[in-house]
Amino acid sequence: DVKVTQSSRYLVKRTGEKVFLECVQDMDHENMFWYRQDPGLGLRLIYFSYDVKMKEKGDIPEGYSVSREKKERFSLILESASTNQTSMYLCASSPPGVTQYFGPGTRLLVL
Amino acid sequence: KNEVEQSPQNLTAQEGEFITINCSYSVGISALHWLQQHPGGGIVSLFMLSSGKKKHGRLIATINIQEKHSSLHITASHPRDSAVYICAGGMNRDDKIIFGKGTRLHILP
After folding, report:
1. Candidates B41, B48, B102; nearest CB to A42
2. What is the pLDDT of residues A10-44, one digit of tens each?
3. Who's near A72: CB < 8 A, 6+ residues apart?
């Protein structure tokens, strides 16, 4: 079974803090994705990566950055957390042209 | 603009009822995904289809490419089917997915 894990299920941070969300997949997938999910807005793509050290902006990259130093790990970074970044964050991975496999999500609260 | 529209937004039904959730999508989408999200957040991929019909247990997904329309059916619905069902379109040109806003299904015992 494909496994996508995320470092935390719940996270509480203060405004201005630097936040790291980690995602690891164990199936050697080339593609990895970070989404945020908000009520009424559905899932929105923040960043994605097709390969190690490659990254592409999604629909809402502002306020975020990413890092992919190893194929299995894709990190989402909030350089200076703000209250409007309170959300559910979902990571996914996939081989090319195949359905995405999702992690369990991280519910982030920024106070 | 690439879009995926789902209906209904919310659906409440009695146990045993036949459930249909609809999804329309725009040009540029080459494959349709159906996803399930239970309370607590985890998302599970149910189906990916680009033509015809797929069945898994009590779940059936169909797609009509000419009409750019897909449906997810649940037969003999059960309270454990209560979840958010998300339709998503895979793009022709890359591996990105565009998500519908989801249908919240509640099956009453």
Report:
1. B102
2. 999 999 999 999 999 999 999 999 999 998 888 99
3. A24, A25, A26, A28
